[in-house]
Amino acid sequence: MSFHADDTRLGPLTDGQTVAVIGGGPGGIGCALTLRREADKRNLRLRIVVFEGKRFGVHYNQCAGVLSPPLQQLLRDDYALELPPEMIEREIKGYVLHSEHKQIALSGAEYGGSSLAVRRVQFDDFLERAARERGIEIVQTRATDLEFRNEEVVVFTWGGTLRAAAVVGAFGLSRAMTATLSRHTRYLPPRSLDTMVTNFRPSGRNGAPLPGLLDDHIHVLLPPLKRIEFGAIIPKGNHLTVILAGENVRTDDMNAFLDLPPVHRLIPKRPEPDDYFKGRFPISLARHSFGDRYVTVGDAAGLVRPFKGKGINSAMITGGWAAQTMCDVGVSERAFREFHRQCSDITADVLYGKLIRKLTGLSAHGSFMDRVLDMAEHEPAMRELLFDCVSGRETFRKIVLRQGNVGLATRLGGLYLLDRLQHPFG
Predict the structure, then answer these.
(1) Of 56, 163, 224, 391, whose CB has the highest number of CB atoms within 10 Å?
(2) Are residues 198 and 342 in the same domain?
(3) pLDDT tens digit string along 207-248?
């Protein structure tokens, strides 16, 4: 029997129903908190259950832990939450973009504010505690399977079984859960890049916070290494976080990256290999990311700014929008189309993100990036364009279509052709 959008069983959530959220990161907790807020407005007794297998504060999270604007405002306005000052390890004042022989500093103060460096597991723990305080059930166990029935979704876990009116997939790119949802629905997960993360502690493992580490700037590199698309070095409280992204990134790639002259100048000592952690992030939209009684948010749906992150912001925003849709419209596939239309700023950016990703890959070889940074030293418009590309302040669509940037792009194309002529095998 197929579902129909006008079936009252798939209408807005009603008194006494249950929603299962798989994943207790920002997307899952953002969804749960919004469900609680909207249920309270409507005087609904809504049971909200979040399943999360990690123990925040114990298990590592492969996210770099940078909170970009306007996350603090989002927490205040949408969730009535204030980020504890002690959680902030460092205020990120800007970026330093490196080529093989040059570098340029891009100030956040000049273009719209600073980012905040935190420990991601502490941030997730903060959100989880806020959810518990508001009556949301957090169950520390892994979901193992799903069963979609006409009137409910059955969620199987290590700790038991839950029957719910709908299930929210906030499980990131978990191979187990993406495979499970794909087996029972038409969902296909987004394509992804591998990430590898390690930490370097200049003051020792238990050292005190280091003021002015790397001048409080994130250093971004486009290395001429086969499998690495980009790398970044991020100052935290008493350590540096190094993150790489690419296809099939290996520990050998991290070693090669750390041996590059610009990196070696920033980090003279190589971290031990057993401190490396692997993860993934999406570079495309998921297919059939929603249907009757299910919706995916954040990374699981590919709803992030392509190739530049802001994943925490996108996860909390899309989780909140999905919850609002369930309360206002319903839990049918047709209802969730309304949710997906709300995400148009993100989905419309995918094509532009693919273009920028391709151009970034081409620019990592030869002397092209040296020429670009030399141009940026003398032209404010080029510096702003570079800041937007590395910071996530604007969508790629807005960057590409902004007045004046078409002319800059034409000149960059000319620089690239010149570089190819001079370095045809670079």
Answers:
(1) 391
(2) no
(3) 667 788 899 999 999 888 889 989 999 999 888 999 999 999
